[in-house]
Automatic annotation (TrEMBL):
Lineage, uppermost ranks: Eukaryota, Metazoa, Ecdysozoa, Arthropoda, Chelicerata
PANTHER family in the cross-refs: PHOSPHORYLASE B KINASE REGULATORY SUBUNIT (PTHR10749), PHOSPHORYLASE B KINASE REGULATORY SUBUNIT BETA (PTHR10749:SF8)
Pathways per UniProt: Glycan biosynthesis; glycogen metabolism
UniProt domain GH15-like: residue ranges: 60-489
Protein source organism: Stegodyphus mimosarum (African social velvet spider)
Gene Ontology biological process terms, A to Z: glycogen metabolic process
Protein name (database record): Phosphorylase b kinase regulatory subunit
InterPro entries in the record: 6-hairpin_glycosidase_sf, 6hp_glycosidase-like_sf, GH15-like, PHK_A/B_su
Amino acid sequence: MDSIRRISKVERRVSLLEGPSRIFQGSTTPAVIQYRSRLASISEIDAEQVKIANYADTVKQLDAYYGQVKRQILNHQSSTTGLFPQLSQEREVACVRDSIYCAVAIWSLYQAYKRIDDDRGKAYELGQSAVKCMRGILFCWMRQAEEKLEKYKMNQCPEYALHSKFHLETGLPLAPDALGNYGHLQLDVVSLYLLFLVQMIMSGLQIIYTMDEVSFMQNLVYYVERAYRTPDFGMWERGSKYNDGTPEIHASSIGMAKSALEAINGCNLFGDKGASWSVVYVDIDAHSRNRSIFETLLPRESSSKNTDSSLLPTISFPCFATHDELLYNRTKDKIVRKLQGTYGFKRFLRDGYGTAVEDITREYYEQGETKEFENIECEWPLFFLYMILDGIFKGNDEQIKKYRHLLHPRLKVDRYGNAVVPKYFYVPTLCIDAERRDPGSQKRIASAEGDADNLYLHGQALYIMCELLVDGLLHINELDPIRRYLPSYNRPRKTGRYSAFQ
């Protein structure tokens, strides 16, 4: 109706302009010159009509993404805890890392909807769904404050780590027999949570309500400050590449901790309604140690991994942990050179996860078993998405085009016509010997995880973010309100008295 009213106003303006021009036709009086100049502005009226058409098209596109987010993401959010599983068919285990990325995808669409005048309540719904997820994770961890967090501050060992997986419906820790000897100590998860908590608060969402929660967030800062000397199980949840239950120091975890500390330092968790006592602070010495160790480790990931795809989200979106161009380029080039394939990126060299020869009945590998996985590692299209995001933030159109071209043939389609991102591609048993002899020669098969009936939510979340950015519905400053993608000296400064560092 608003657009109809605008168009009728335009028509009235045109009729008013045309009337006097007929009366003074052939005259050269100043009045006629004035009317003729107003007639020339009809092109501006045409521009206004184009704007109306573009606005309607934008709303239509956003509504299409809203439907996709509802079906592929929100449909799998727990109604009680707000958490998400890793795979849409999972009914018991909630994964904190995947939940964070799902919340970010929902929040990114919320940010896009804020551009339009009448979103019919969609922006509020999306924003509160993201808040529910972030608060759900907060509640799960707060229950472990005394049992885990306080003890961890005294002794940084896996036994006292905050959990990275919880029961999907109750939010309680999972029974030991459900996960076995699962390595919950994953510092990148807590760091990712802190980083996106700050991003969402800066966008105007209220996530932290009380001083108890502020105090707990300060304790989470203490939790990640010692990342530079704490061996953990990393993004892949297995520790060293030998999968023998041994944690190790990961550059990706340290880099994410560094980014989280920079983001939350001086942040008022109550947003623009806060006071001095709701501000969180970081030990500058702890940050400095994390930075120096991280930059010393790069381009290597850990003692057992020469390089790792988990460094992509560390050096680029969402963390942007280094702005040293030489270090960034060396790390990225090494990942692309050693891990990129035609179906995606390998997680790391000799990674046995998902391969046809991996014995899934055993929790750990035997000594020397990783040699069996050489040249047949699974390839993950997830990292094509990270490379697209990297290209968008770096303004590299050629990189965006290249990885969209590589990604497109790997996508599946659901019954609504929406793209589905497979979790990984593996070499079938009959082709393993040929693939070992000639890497990249054999056709790979998409995993059962990551199809229309069993979505891989981490991949779907990143895909939605990429498409919103590529379609121009979302700006990088809306996905990164604190401007992590800029060097520290170019970022907007927070107001208030606090220490700032790079």
